[in-house]
């Protein structure tokens, strides 16, 4: 079908990219733009959206294409008018997220690396969750932090914490398909009130890592958690693992934005080591 967009409408920046709406009559597309060198990030995002869509659990915008032109890279996807949702919308989101997490694989990781915020997220496949979390999540961010000159104390605590991972991750999760970057800014509701998730950093991991992140910047509300737990209760001991999982995102924020996040990461590490009496 022909598509002749009129004047693109600039939707302003998301966290990382510039967002534009292209429209021709009733047809609308959502486009994100970045520097040309960022094309792999958009290619991974498109694959992630396809993987989430294939699980048939929760709505995601379907990607159309990715590419680079005139010095910029782009991803084009279905435009979905997003709202706040009402009534039982949050409960539906909890239920559908549990359904997404029932999509499982044999190993942790994913078919390729992707991006969390603007940082590379390694996803080498590994059947051992503790090793995966220690090396490809916390270890990777701590190495980035060292490169970024983030303090001795952070590195000392980090080393201790990596050693303590087996004691802290004392449950046996199965590799669940995760959105991977599910904070409140990446969940919305379409015009029919159906939950929509977007801007993923997809991989197969412990579903608790996903739930932990939903709690990191404000939380998704009591109805969401009640519905998730009703569909698939979390394992005992989640409260401690939650801090270990959210440490990854706080370290990433320290690497992206500096400021108070390095101090917050240190306090989280001290708390976790305190759990073990270290
Ligand atoms: P970034 O990668 O820069 O963080 P996002 O993918 O989070 O950008 O998109 C920025 C904002 O645009 C979102 O918070 C959401 O409100 C809106 N948005 C995201 N995807 C779509 C879409 N497919 N259709 C319409 N609006 C969208």
What would your notes on this structure say?
This protein is 42% helix and 19% strand. By secondary structure, it is of the alpha+beta class. It folds into two domains: 9-78, Phosphorylase Kinase, domain 1, CATH 3.30.200.20; 89-275, Alpha-Beta Complex (Aminoglycoside 3'-phosphotransferase, Chain: A, domain 2), CATH 3.90.1200. A hairpin with a 5-residue loop joins strand 9 and strand 10. The longest helix is centred in the last third of the chain and has 20 residues, at 238-257. The protein binds adenosine-5'-diphosphate. Adenosine-5'-diphosphate (ADP) binds next to strand 3 and strand 5.
- In angstroms, what is the radius of gyration? 19 Å
Strand order of the largest sheet: 1-2-3-5-4
Shape: globular
Order of helices and strands: EEEHEEHEEHHEEEEHHHH
Specify the number of helices: 8
CATH topology label of the largest domain: Aminoglycoside 3'-phosphotransferase, Chain: A, domain 2
Helix percentage: 40-55%
Query: End-to-end distance, in Å?
Result: 64 Å
> What is the second-level CATH architecture of the largest domain?
Alpha-Beta Complex
